[in-house]
Amino acid sequence: MRHDVEIPIPDNLRELFSIPTCEMVSLPDAEPLQLRLPNGATMTPVADLSKGIPTDCSLAVNLFVQLGPFLASIECLLRVLGLLQPLIKVVGSLGPPPDPIKLPEAIVEFGEAAAKLMPCFGMIMPAGPNILMFLKDLILMIIKLVKCMIGQLETILGIMQGIEIKLDTAQKAGNTELAKILECARENASTAAQHAQASLGPVQNLMPLIGFFLELAGISFEIPALGSAEDSAALQGTIDTLKDTITTLETVLETLP
Questions:
Q1: In this predicted model, what pLDDT tens digit does every residue of 191-248 receive, in sequence order?
Q2: Greatest CA separation found in the chain?
Q3: 3-state SS, residue 27
Q4: Average pLDDT, the chain
Q5: Contact 70, 111 (CB under 8 A)
Q6: For the segment 130-167, what is each residue's pLDDT rounded down to a tens digit?
Q7: What is the pTM of this model?
Q8: How far apart, in whole angstroms, are the C-alpha atoms of residue 229 and residue 234?
Q9: How many of the other CB atoms lie within 10 Å of CB of 92?
Q10: Gap between the Cα atoms of 114 and 118, Å rounded
Q11: CB atoms within 10 A of CB 31
């Protein structure tokens, strides 16, 4: 027996069954974060792809992880500053007229400060072993990071290509509701790809800082700008660019003794 009587559904149940809007399921964007250093440079967080989409908390923690090595790296700079004060005293004691009492004391103080600075000279020797080891490790680290990014982007690319096929089918069938859902899914995949690409940002920011070391070893290299990730074709172009970057880095690595 058939009944055509419509059963009323409460409004709260209707809301539960309604299709969510894209704004309700969109992936969040982390707020920009940076740490301005005493030397005038800026430290930015590295997005950890192994922990999913970066958040404000994960980026802040990453900055603190970077801070320790930075403080260790400025030890030589502080030793240089410690050398300047006795050097100023030596120059001042030379006169005219020279101060026979203060000059010997200033020279001894200068010698003690200079002795503390000696271990730092290895990092500025052209093509010295310290600089070459640093550059090798740095290039290997960049290669690993780029390969990690490629893996993430290729996974997202596969998802995006599947979504685009289904989206095309839904649009041709006139299924507007399904097309909206799939369009939102593609936007989320694009956002995920953009977050993955952002993990290379700190490397790009570091390139001007390590340019001095690259010049000492006779190396010329720049991280290329990444393209768009708005669709699968653009994302594939970005992946191809990154693969070319790895080839270039491996070639540079082979030139180092």
A1: 888 877 777 776 776 676 666 666 666 777 777 777 777 888 888 888 898 898 889 8
A2: 120
A3: coil
A4: 75
A5: no
A6: 667 767 777 787 788 788 888 888 888 898 899 889 98
A7: 0.57
A8: 5
A9: 13
A10: 7
A11: 9
